[in-house]
Each structure stands twice: as C-alpha cells, then as structure tokens.
Write a sequence for this structure.
C-alpha cells in the first residue's frame, strides 16, 4: 500500500461533485496528509520493512548481505546471551516496578489531602521526570561511586561498609533500579494522584459511617477505584521497562561482566560492536513481540481487575 | 500528630529528590584535587568555577546546548504542524480508505525505536546524511501519537462551528487554521510538552547517528564527556548542572501545565 497515493473522494459520503471539484478536494486531502505521511513512510514504515529484511540476513554493515532465512531468530532463541539479556531486563522490571508503584502510591496518598505547600512538593517530586536519563544516570553514578561517593560515605557513618554499587556485578542492577525509580517516582505519583482525586469523597465517607477502618477503606474502595490509573502505570512501566537502555548504557554499559546486559543494550552492541546487524534486527523484533504479547495479555486481563466504574 | 508525620515523610522525600541536584552543584564547584577525597567536603576550600572552565575548553558546550534547544523546538513545531493537519484530515475530510490509512498510522505507533535504529542508520548512511542535523531531526518530523491525540481533540470540536464557517465561504484551510486550531489549543499544548521533552531527552538515536561534537545534543555530549573524564566528576557534574538549567527554567514557567498534562494522560 502506498501512503502517498491519494484516493478520490467517496461518492457515497460526499455529494457528487463535478470532476474539477473532485480533483480540488483530493488535492486538499493530500495537502493535509502528506506532511505526516511522507516522513512516516520514509522514517518509520520503510525502516520497519528494512529491519525485517535485515533480520533475515547475516550482515556486518559493510560487506554485502547474506541470506540466512530465519537462522538469526533460531540462533537467538537458542543462545545463552539472549536468555541472559531477557533475564536482566526482567530483573530490572521486577525491581523497578514495585518500588516505583509503592513509592508513588504512598506519596500520592500523602499528598491527596489539603496541606500547605502541596503544589511545591508536587513540583519537586516531578523535577527528576523532566531531567534527561543521561543526567540522572550521571548524578547517581557519582552518588553511588564506591570509593568517593556520598552514599557509601553516609553508610560508613553508621559503621557499615557500602557495596561496590555499579562496579559490583551483584549490585550493578540494583544501582540502575534505584536511579530509575528515583527518576520516575514523580511521574507515577502524578498519575495516581489524579486517579485518587477522581474518587468521589462520598464513597469513603459512606464506608467510614458504616464502620470500615482505614485499611478496609483503602483495600475495598481506594484500590479498586484506582485500578484504571494502576493499569495505566503498569502498562506504561512494562513497555518502558522492556526497552530500558539510556541509564544502563551510561551507568554500566551492560557491565560489569555482563551483569546488566539488557536487551536493547544487546541490540546496540550486536550492531555497532560485533557487526551483526542481522542478529540485532532479529533481536529487536523478538523484543517487540514480547512487549506486544505482554501488553495484549494485560489489555485482555484488565476486565478481571480494572474497574472503570 | 498524623499531620506532622505526613509533613516529615513528604519533606524527607522532597529532600531525597533535591539532594542529587544539590550535590551535583557542590561537586561542580569543588577543585579537581579535592573531588575524590573522603570524607566528602560540603564546603570545599578553593571552590570555584574551574570545572566549568574545563568543560568549555574540552567541548563546544554552548553549541551543544544550542543544538539541543533548537532541535527540540524544531521537532516540536514540525510535529505540531504535521500532526494537527493529519488530525484534521482524519477527523473532517472523508475519503475512501481513510480508516485503513489511520490504522497504518496507529501501527507505526507500536513499533519501538530500537527496531528502527539499524535500518534508519543505513538509510541515512546511504544518502550520506550521518552526522548531520537533518539526521537527528528526521525521525521526529511526524508523530503518529500526535495524530492520534489531536484527532480526538478535533473530533470534539462541534461541527456547527465548521458549518458556520462554510456558510461564510471559508475553505478547509481557513476552517482548519481559524476555527479548529484555536479550539484545540489545550491538546496542542499537551502534545507540545511531550514532544519537547522527548526530543530534549532523546539519547539512543543521536548516539547512533552523530559522531562530531558540533552536531551533538546534550545527552550525547554529556555521555561523551563522562567517557573522557571518567574520574573528573567535578567536570561531569558541571556539564550536568548546566544542561539541567534550560529545562528547569522552562519547567518553572510551565510546571502547572506539564503536571496537568501528565495527570490527564492517565485518566482515560
């Protein structure tokens, strides 16, 4: 299908026009659509096709491509590194999502009541959200510097010895999770706060009158009515989590000893370090398939727990 | 009591949010010799702007910042124009195959950048466009997300408004520019905020396509700086501090609207 071709207007929907007017109408439609259709064709659709094509070849970006069919996919599915990359990505999500959701929900609950300086607090918590990932990664790499970082100095004050953070294979992923949660906490808080504010106060009042305690009100009223916002946060966080790259690339570059080699970092390295553009493209499609399936499962499953009132 | 406790928790959290920025400022003012010393020095002797001078000597920092700014502005303007026009067509100009074409637009929305990075790189290399401003900007000229968002807004404009304009003899271009655009201003502002932030923060694509410092954007320039000065944290922090300033100023002005836009995005 070509995007640039502009079909003639439908005779059914449009009044029958003389040919000249029809041509003018078609031109009008074209003028409105081409500014977006041409770039989408050139910079999204064609690269999409190119990526699929590349994934069926062996290619180092320099010498001619060699057709290998689905071998790249088969190799990736069988390879230890792919499994490790998905494992690291899941580790990231498993650490990041609960932290950012619990923290964001707690803050949103605290800020969901009239208090002085609420707007100021909200603005402060949101500040890291507008800061770029690269800056956030650098700030935290310095804070978590094993030898001269201020965090380990503070841990030392209470008589403990801080870990090696991003230089230690066991602590590198927790370091990335910490920095990421710090950055996105305000985002999650704002989404959940908006959800909380949409819950009618009468419901909570009625429950209070009926003798429900704070925990029961939270569990039975707030959480269910907040579920659309929770759903949004979970879907977005999973999509972003599977695609985690910037902070990893800056903080560890996938190291130490490959401990934080996430999928997109692997795509990057396969292409530009190992000259395996075909395998990289195949891996990016595998990741896309995983994200798509995970998102579809959530959309399907939302009926069970998401309450749209 | 509970009230005081709430303030303490929220206040402590706010400190945790602000401290990394404050520490970056302090580190950036620390002289080179004292950066790695423990215990850390909160009021370093000989504090000064040495690290900032170093920063400006080693990389064309102002140019990189200017690149980031104008690329973010250009990308936002392009997306606003192309998306609002397409949104008008999809909402107001019936033509055969419109539904299918809209589905194609939506499909591109689902494909993540990392799928496109390799072929985009090849495409740019084929036309000798790597390491150019054009290459950085190209993938952000159109936005399927914007088309989707603004189409919703255009559909909410009552048709009577268009019809009144038609009676006055206005064509589609005038209806679009003079009737529809002013009425969807809130949606345009929301989309502009998202577009600006996305461009300002983007890292993967510039990392792939740009090699020369004079075409770099801030995230790439900073990552590069860190690669060069792995232990000179005062210089790296100086770069981080300066690069936060423009977005901070914008944020202070548009803070209410930014937060409202994000809050709204979750209420659907």
């Amino acid at each position: 299908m070509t995007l640039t071709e502009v079909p003639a207007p439908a005779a059914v929907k449009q009044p029958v026009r003389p040919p000249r007017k029809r041509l003018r109408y078609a031109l009008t439609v074209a003028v409105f659509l081409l500014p977006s259709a041409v770039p989408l064709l050139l910079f999204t659709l064609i690269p999409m096709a190119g990526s699929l094509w590349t994934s069926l070849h062996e290619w180092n970006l320099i010498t001619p491509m060699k057709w290998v069919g689905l071998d790249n996919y088969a190799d990736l599915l069988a390879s230890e590194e792919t499994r490790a990359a998905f494992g690291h990505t899941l580790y990231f999500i498993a650490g990041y999502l609960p932290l950012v959701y619990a923290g964001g929900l707690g803050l949103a609950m605290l800020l969901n009541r009239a208090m002085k300086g609420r707007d100021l607090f909200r603005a402060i918590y949101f500040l890291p959200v507008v800061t770029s990932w690269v800056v956030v990664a650098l700030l935290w790499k310095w804070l978590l510097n094993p030898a001269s970082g201020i965090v380990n100095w503070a841990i030392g004050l209470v008589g403990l010895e801080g870990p090696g953070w991003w230089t230690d294979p066991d602590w590198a992923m927790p370091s990335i999770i910490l920095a990421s949660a710090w950055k996105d906490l305000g985002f999650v808080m704002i989404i959940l706060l908006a959800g909380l504010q949409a819950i009618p106060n009468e419901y909570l009042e009625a429950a209070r009158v009926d003798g429900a305690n704070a925990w029961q009100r939270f569990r039975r009223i707030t959480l269910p009515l907040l579920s659309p916002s929770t759903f949004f946060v979970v879907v977005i966080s999973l999509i972003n989590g599977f695609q985690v790259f910037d902070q990893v690339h800056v903080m560890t570059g996938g190291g130490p000893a490959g401990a934080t080699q996430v999928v997109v970092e692997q795509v990057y390295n396969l292409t530009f370090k190992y000259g395996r553009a075909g395998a990289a493209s195949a891996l990016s499609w595998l990741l896309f398939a995983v994200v798509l399936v995970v998102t579809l499962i959530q959309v399907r499953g939302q009926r069970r727990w998401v309450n749209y009132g | 009591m509970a009230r005081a406790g709430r303030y303490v928790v929220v206040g402590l959290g706010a400190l945790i949010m602000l401290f990394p920025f404050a520490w970056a400022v302090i580190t950036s003012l620390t002289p080179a010799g004292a950066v790695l010393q423990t215990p850390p020095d909160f009021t370093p002797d000989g504090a000064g702007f040495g690290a900032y001078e170093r920063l400006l000597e080693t990389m064309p920092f102002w140019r990189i910042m200017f690149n980031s700014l104008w690329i973010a502005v250009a990308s936002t303007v392009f997306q606003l124009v192309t998306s609002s026009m397409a949104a008008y067509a999809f909402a107001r100009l019936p033509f055969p195959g419109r539904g299918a074409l809209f589905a194609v637009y939506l499909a591109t929305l689902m494909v993540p950048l990392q799928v496109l990075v390799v072929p985009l790189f090849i495409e740019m290399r084929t036309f000798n466009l790597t390491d150019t401003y054009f290459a950085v900007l190209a993938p952000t000229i159109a936005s399927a997300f914007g088309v989707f968002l603004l189409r919703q807004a255009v559909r909410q404009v009552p048709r009577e408004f268009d019809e009144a304009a038609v009676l006055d003899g206005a064509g589609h271009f005038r209806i679009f520019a003079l009737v529809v655009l002013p009425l969807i201003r809130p949606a345009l502002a929301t989309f502009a905020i998202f577009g600006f932030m996305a461009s300002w923060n983007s890292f993967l694509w510039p990392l792939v396509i740009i090699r020369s410092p004079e075409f770099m954007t801030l995230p790439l320039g900073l990552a590069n700086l860190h690669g060069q000065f792995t232990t000179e944290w005062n210089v790296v922090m100086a770069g981080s501090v300066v690069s936060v300033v423009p977005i901070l100023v914008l944020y202070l002005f548009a803070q209410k609207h930014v937060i409202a836009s994000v809050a709204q995005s979750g209420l659907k």
Notes: The first helix of chain B runs from residue 2 to 29.
